[in-house]
Amino acid sequence: SWVEVGITADNPPDADNNQPVFDPAGWPSEITLFCDTESSSANRCTTAKINLLDFFSDADGDIQYISVFNDTSDAIDDNFAIVISVGGDGIAHYNPADMFFYDPDMDSWTLNDVIFIATDSFNSKVNSLPVSFIVVPIHFSIEHPEQSWVEVDGIMVYSGVGLPGKQVSVLIGGLPVNNTIVSEDGTWELGIPASRIQGTSVTPQFSYSGELSSGERIHLGQPEAEGTNWSKVAFGSVFVLVLLAALVYFLVEIEEEDDEYEKSPETFSAEPEEPDDPYAWAKSADSTPSPIVDNSSQLEQHEDHPGWSWDPAKEEWAPDPDYHGPK
Questions:
Q1: Whether residue 36 has pLDDT greater than 70
Q2: Smaller CB count within 10 Å for the chain: N or C?
Q3: What long-range pairs does 11-17 form, CB within 8 A, spacing at least 24?
Q4: What contacts 24+ positions apart, CB below 8 Å, involve 181-186?
């Protein structure tokens, strides 16, 4: 945004003086700075530096000093001249961390529409265009790769955010593997070669600003859990088939044993004895003897059941009349 500022430049008519000149070519309208929200160090922020003599000049070569303009009618810029220093060499410096002594809120460390004024030996002045110092709060972060494994000849690439100019190092087993410098836009990227992975898997550590952060465990080659283990699939299929075959065999055996059990003479219960009839002598006198039927010719003998014969007509076992015991 623009701010209208009225500056009176006094050029004495009797001094034959040339007024200082400001050249806007290449003048930055905005400078972005970063501050680490998790650090309390004096170096927690990136700093701005502008060589003002690249933009201010005087034909007489008598620029005495360059200062930061302070609008006395507006309190918002009262700290500008305090935290922005301009040396005798014409270089302006701003470290946002210096604002902490006046306001610990990092959001207030952004300085908008700062104006510089060059003054010569005759007190003639010229002002610059406004420049804003934008402070962006950041904290160190690690962006892990999408997959947790790397090919035996590949590289595991990590990225993240950090304070520009800071070094990020990765270690495995306490030994340094690789390092990089955070770029000016606050991002970083580095890789871990698969050749530095000892064994089948490791957990990398990242060093930043004297602090260690552990990353996620990485594997050398694709883990079985993420791929298809065909040997296990084949073994599982065979195991299921064997189990089904054993179950069928078991059921068939049970059915055959039940059939044999039903044919066994021991499974047939003896016919229940009728209670004694006190009048049986009278009934027997009147009864007509039944014809005797010889069914012995119809009986079937089985070696598995000596002393018993199978009567197919009655479907029952009966004592074998020709059996006289073991010889």
A1: yes
A2: C
A3: 11/122, 11/124, 12/122, 15/122, 17/60, 17/120, 17/122, 17/124
A4: 186/34, 186/136, 186/138, 186/161, 186/162
- 202 with 221, same domain? yes
> What is residue 99's predicted lDDT score, i.e. its pLDDT?
94
Rounded to 5 degrees, what are φ and ψ at 63?
-70, 120
Last residue of a domain, one of 183, 201, 226: 226
Could you give the angle at the alpha carbon of 106 between the alpha carbons of 105 and 111, nearest 5°?
110
CATH number of the domain that 189 lies in? 2.60.40.2840
Q: Summarize pLDDT for 256-309 with one digit per residue, the tens.
A: 655 555 555 555 444 555 556 665 555 555 555 555 555 555 777 777 777 777
**pLDDT, average across residues 199-212:** 91
Domain of 81 in residue numbering reads as 21-138
Q: For residue 107, give the CATH number of its domain.
A: 2.60.40.10
Do 208 and 103 lie in one domain? The reply is no
